[in-house]
């Protein structure tokens, strides 16, 4: 297995009409979850990925498992909880460019993940463990589950990748800052956004923020700078990598997960850091041009077309 | 005010395709709640009705309030809870004639209703108080809220109408039996279904079950017998009233609430008990011929057409 | 040209959900008009048909003309009125088996048809003129237009076919009775329903009602008896023809027009009266099994399959 | 009551596909009417509003009344007309940025409003009466109804607010100019657009046009200048207020009504004229970013966020 | 692996409106294929299943693979063909109870399956090989592929199950009869329908037809008799098993595949022949009550509820 | 007849959601074909047009014929092929501005058009014959059909108009270049795009490329330059004509066909070459502002509004 990841996935309801959701009669559904987005992104790029989670014993849980399994992600470690429901999430398009998210995830099945759910052998069989700052915010039990997974990774030589993914609604600022800093310290590779970096270490330049993460314990830091691209820092090198231009942002949600999938696929492929970041930028950009969190994740040939601006015969522009 | 009622209303999601909900891509939404169904049914029949509840400070709460207010029901006693969400409910059509219901209502805003939400003057201003056995099952606090409302009704000469509305998923059998019996005892008028009556008093004939309720404290008992119609019992009279034939049941959910609305409207109009029951049967039947809980509730002229089988000029059959 | 017909066609709006139309958020549209239904039915059975009408100078008019022309009906005699709109009509499915129709056709373009719209040479070029009792109910001018068309037919040896198609909402009972009787008298062939026959001549048996029409001036009378089939009467013969069984009525509207199209196609083909009626029964039955007025009109091979219960290889039951 | 308004509301049909409406198979529906748009805008901003109108005795009338009542607007003065239908209106999106509107409102229930519909006590109980130039264009009777309402307002010290809302299709240029000028003269506050001002007084600068209205009788003139914002003039002050930038116009219809609602809410709140205009600009801008006439009308907290560009925690951009 | 199956799967387009498909503006899509239906049915009942096929290198191929993999079926043996497209199929609902199927499968990727696609080790690793009479009808190459698979099964002790699944459109009667007879002879277990049995062996009683198959080489014969149920015959026993009553058939397509899945699951579980058949009857019945080929396939607990008519608490009837 | 054209038309399926088509559950359908697009464009501009083609004996064939006939195009020369299906085509919106087209047209009914389908008298009765480079790419037989049609045109004095419409997927580069050059040589008027011109004659300036076509045999060359407009060349004159600005491209497909329809209508009307080209530019631009190939084709008054930027009263911007 190339990468194992761990986290909550929900059914995502999107009103068919924009504006205040009170007027929405019809909704369409997708599935969404930061970590499964990354897993699907990696699978689509040809990597072997596993996703650990807990689902409710309900139709929404079946849907999520089937969808992720259908994408070629290993779901053998997913458990089913008879006592709690699968989480839901509503994405309200208030105006073009203004989204409001509402969650029904409190006490969800995934929030009941436990350290005992983690099979050390499964973690040990992977080259990378990917975790985010969402899971520890779900519950104390989830926090411990993440720590356990990291511990298993470390003692089996599995590289730990951490994406802070700050969710202010889920916990207090104080607790969030403390845990995100703690997990950043334990990770080998960190993928923070500039806002998240400032939340943890205070306002500063990308160079200084990256150094903060480095000094805090990470070997490789890739700092996302939005449309500007990203800044990377390792023992060997550092630098800025420009983002790809996007004609029209259709749906920004999932861009960070696409970035993570792009970077991780590059890391798995053993690319140089600037090439890793460039791939992250490309996948992140591609995700924003399609509605949904995972629908825009590219296969390797579409990614190459996009990165190299190769004109394709089968596409009419 | 003719009637005041009290209870939780949720946004109802219905998959656009039948079968296992895991395959449902699109959902349409309505609103549903036993007590607001009754309130809307009464308003449509020209009665003055008020509905007491608590909603989340969210778009779903706005939708519910606007819809019920739009139907002409007074919503001045509805409170908004900043700390809890409006409840949701999913209606899965497994096969023709087999529905499965899933709730996201645990810890909902309505489950946080409190005795202090009830304004005694508001209750006192009504002729009837309608409550159901769903509300006390939501939370301890809700149970006390119902008791408080009944207490206010009793000391202000307001007639109490109780519909058991057994929801097995919400509480234990033991607790349900105890509370439903207690509330039946406090009510002047009870509207149980035959299954509910047997749940409370054990298997018996309609006559004996009705007598059980009567002996338990109710003045008027109207026992629903499904397609067969209903049996009524009061100090003055008793008897069976046949149901109306229904060509095709489109959606059975809400039939009991329609029955309650029909009966209550007859009670408000001072009809004789057999006429009251006949109206209940008719409204209940009409509700089942339309999709949704409230969409089939009739206005008085449609009800009369239906009850009297008058051919209408504006309808093509 | 085999048949020329004359009348109003409207855009038909159907709510996507059943029940009271106030709750309908979405509507789908079709086109509908008794006479164009007949014209399309005939064209589908391979006959040469022309349709005379007036449309508003608007998108709905364009839609109607294109649809009917697309079906292979000649629309060269259709005029466009810059001063009035194309009529609309709403079909509300109250319950299974109960439809309510609402019209926005007052002062419509078609209600402004005028005698001058009728080209005598066009009528003369046909073998049959088909008119209904709807057109004279639209306006005084429309009444005169129908009379003019009949006059042109008569003096050019064109057989006149009349379908009463009583629409109570459009005119007074008295006026309706007078005009339907007048037009029945002028027609060579009449296709009344039993209700319409009783409306004109009073309650009686099918045999007597048919004789009434015959004595009133028609050569051939085909009296529709609903599911029972039809009764026919001419100088040569008379008798009952049983209807075809229909597994499930999906939409009854348009059945009478299908019946007319079936009969007329048989008349054009020179069939014997019982065969003509049998074809009318079959087309009428087929129309009721499909949603929409014209969507169920069969081509000749599907009609033959249906009439002869031939098992088809390309259909899975 | 803070504000009473008066006018026609219709059911609005929007094709689900853009381009020529002849190709539109599906339509979605909303409700729309300049004056009820203003009423809903004010109710959403927390004001007490009443709406006077006449509706057909049909499902579309029920829908309109329920929707507006649901929004918290008082509809106790709405009458139902058994002899005329509720008006309809079709909004065709020809291309991005090009809308074509088609009405079925001739002889509608609302066009039959009469002076006798207006209850002087109801007008007297309000602080403001809002009328537009659409109502007098509907019929002579409607024109007199507006005059009557204004007369009642004036003799009861109720401030009259007039929005010209020129609809060229509904009346002749000459008549329109005469009546709009007459009503502008009777109003205390006028809210014309620059095009309407030029239509009434001839081409001129905003300053001169505003002065024309002022000299014509209004105390306060707020002249809408489209994207540029607005110009205001009163005895005390005058000036330009810049509009708010709009990222993407989704649906421009209803912007003027939003502007009126914003201004009126500011007037009710006793703000200074520049602040009143700024609020009008903001609400007008917000309405254009959402599909539908009323769906984008903000509640006070969303309005404040927008006006002050406060970043909200619950929104993801 | 319990069962391996082999065959073509297509994307299934269903018009959103019934009647002639020429009027259908909108289509919804599912996936369908006799053998993958069986595979999914088995997976849902908890069995280990593999599906061998060939897909086009296109989005429809991706969709099919993801869906089937998502259901828990092993797709490791599916190949992708760069030179041919994935097949499509259109299901036209002419009237209630009358379906017409149209295929775009000529020269499809699956029709290019080749004997070399079959990995003997993969077949050898299963307990059962399931094949149908559709695959040999697709192309000569497909015919040989099936023969090869059967040969591998036989020499590795894998039981061969054959479902004739006659498709008249795909080949000549003569060729069909010859090949179906040949494959029936090679199979250990055959699952013909009564019509198919008569097609192969001529009109006869179920008992005689079953004997024909038995004498032809099969050990176990299960003969489907539609609503009547099925007749079974083996060396040890024979008999009729009654079908389950179905309240309303929503979509009959896929019933035979459900029957096969039910029987096969019983065979895998080592049930007695009458119990095997009863399970086939039950799954077949359940499939017809839901739209789509696979959407009604039950999980084991739903199957048990259905077979034992156990009332479930979570379902409202 | 003004113009006769000849070619394949398909049913066009468009996913209702953008992104990879594997996730599309719902599709809407239209019809599309380069030559019928031109025919419809001409009919809408008031010209007499005929369209020659072959359709499958299926519902999709019926739909195409009805739609095109409905637009007022003569379809009397369309033949029906019992042995082949009507072609389909899928338009996948990958991202805003990136379309991918997938065809199911191999062996389609239209690809079986034959020289014998062409009625010399029909061609002789037209003033112009329009052909494109798509038809000869469908099959050898189609290539000969085009040659036959051209031959009939030439010997009957009918002007031949040729639009190269290069489709790389349908044939080899070599063959395509050879045939397009051959047909360009036979045409009186050619309408190539700049890319197509370079494909045939090699990279060069518009002036040189136009001259190449002229020297190759065409009298009039109109070279499309995308947004820049077009360059024209004849014996009498040459020059550039600027394109019309387009606010937002909704769907670029069909623009070239709109251009051809615009030019041809100008040619039929005997306009000067710059005016002809200007009309082509205008129609091409208008087509891109509406979804679908033919839905944006203008009637003459809308075209005039657009070309002259006349403000219309009935449109709200």
Automatic annotation (TrEMBL), chains A, B, C, D, E, F:
InterPro entries: PfkB_Carbo_kinase (IPR050306), PfkB_dom (IPR011611), Ribo/fructo_kinase (IPR002139), Ribokinase-like (IPR029056). Gene3D superfamilies: 3.40.1190.20. Keywords: ATP-binding, Kinase, Nucleotide-binding, Transferase. Belongs to the carbohydrate kinase PfkB family. One of its GO terms (molecular function) is kinase activity. Residues 2-298 form the Carbohydrate kinase PfkB domain. SUPFAM superfamilies: Ribokinase-like. It holds the Pfam family PfkB. This is 2-dehydro-3-deoxygluconokinase. It comes from Virgibacillus phasianinus.
């Amino acid at each position: 297995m190339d990468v194992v990841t761990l986290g909550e996935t929900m059914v995502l309801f999107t009103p068919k009409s924009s504006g205040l959701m009170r007027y929405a009669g019809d909704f369409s559904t997708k599935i969404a979850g930061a970590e499964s987005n990354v897993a699907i992104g990696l699978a689509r790029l040809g990597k072997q990925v596993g996703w650990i989670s807990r689902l409710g014993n309900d139709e929404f849980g079946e849907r999520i498992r089937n969808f992720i399994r259908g994408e070629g992600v290993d779901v053998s470690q997913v458990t089913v909880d008879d006592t709690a429901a699968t989480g839901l999430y509503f994405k309200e398009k208030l105006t073009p460019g203004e989204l409001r998210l509402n969650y029904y995830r409190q006490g969800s099945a995934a929030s009941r993940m436990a350290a005992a759910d983690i099979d050390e052998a499964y973690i040990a069989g992977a080259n990378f463990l990917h975790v985010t700052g969402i899971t520890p915010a779900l519950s104390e039990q989830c926090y411990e589950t993440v720590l356990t997974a990291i511990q298993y990774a470390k003692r089996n030589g599995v590289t730990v990748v951490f994406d802070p993914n700050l969710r202010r609604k889920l916990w207090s600022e104080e607790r969030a800052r403390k845990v995100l800093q703690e997990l950043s310290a334990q990770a080998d590779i960190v993928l923070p956004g500039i806002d998240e970096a400032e939340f943890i270490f205070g306002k500063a330049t990308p160079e200084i923020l990256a150094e903060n993460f480095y000094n805090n314990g990470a070997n490789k830091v890739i700092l996302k700078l939005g449309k500007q691209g990203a800044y990377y820092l390792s023992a060997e090198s550092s630098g800025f990598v420009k983002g790809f231009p996007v004609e029209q942002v259709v749906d920004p949600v999932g861009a960070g997960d696409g970035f993570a999938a792009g970077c991780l696929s590059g890391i798995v492929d053993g690319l140089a850091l600037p090439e890793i970041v460039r791939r992250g930028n490309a996948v992140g950009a591609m995700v924003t041009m399609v509605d949904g969190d995972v629908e825009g994740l590219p296969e390797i040939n579409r990614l190459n077309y996009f990165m190299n601006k190769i004109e394709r015969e089968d596409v009419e522009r």
